[in-house]
# Entry
Amino acid sequence: MRQGIVIYDATARGFWAARHPWQGRISAKWRPRFRQNGGKAFAAMIEQEQSQIDDSALVKALIAPVQHAGRVIMDFYQTDPSAETKADGSPVTKADQAAEAILLAEIAALAPTIQIISEENAASHKFAASQEFFLVDPLDGTKEFIKARGDGAFTVNIGLIRNGEPVMGIVFAPALDRLFFGSLGNGAFEISGGICRQIHVRMPPADGPVAVASASHRDAQTNQWLETRGITNSIAIGSSLKFCLIAAGEVDLYPRYGPTMEWDTAAGDAVLRAAGGRVTAEDGKPFAYGKTGYRNQPFFAAGGG
# Structure
């Protein structure tokens, strides 16, 4: 069993901050309301104290709604994982749409002044990126979801971008009961089985690094990148879980040449950076967000070393 702190009661949908290891603290006068109302207390704190948003407090307030979205996704996964095809040729399910409705309402209540760019809200894709904005993917790994492969490699994702950098992220794989979250300067954590533990990237093992690659979009460029570096040990998995496995110290590298959008990567990228990892563009510079059309170029995610 993982060691850590029980912080979330799924039956009561209650969240509390007692005995936590995080640096970001909720002031004492707000803790009772946090226990009773979860994110509503956070929204009240923002409104009444007019203070700058605390990324660590915000990501904790998002745990309950993200888990709610995950439960709704699992209902569809077990009963109706079918998909329709969007105008861009990508699949969309009823689970995407239901989860997005939950997430957008909760984010707007918690941080009403921050722009939201969401995968299933096509109108938002036309907005120019502001200095601070959310990137939301209510169901990443849709192809894995509709294949019903049984590996559970699909996720709920919320990332917060500030000045082009992912500063906060939360990723939930409901079929695997693994929820990852973190914010810069406050560390990264995983909740599984109701237990929270801090996570950190690892140094590559003596017998060589382990790479993780896309289960649905692996291409010749990725294979060549691995071969050039003599990396022979790799696993394939879908969705933003690839970032989180690096953050948790289970694998070491994730090269990506295939197409992705910023909402696919922001949350996992933030978790990885909070865990001590890094994500760079082909030129070696830090991978940035708020690009034209929110379309990513090739990137490389890595842990320690």
The two ends are 28 Å apart (CA to CA).
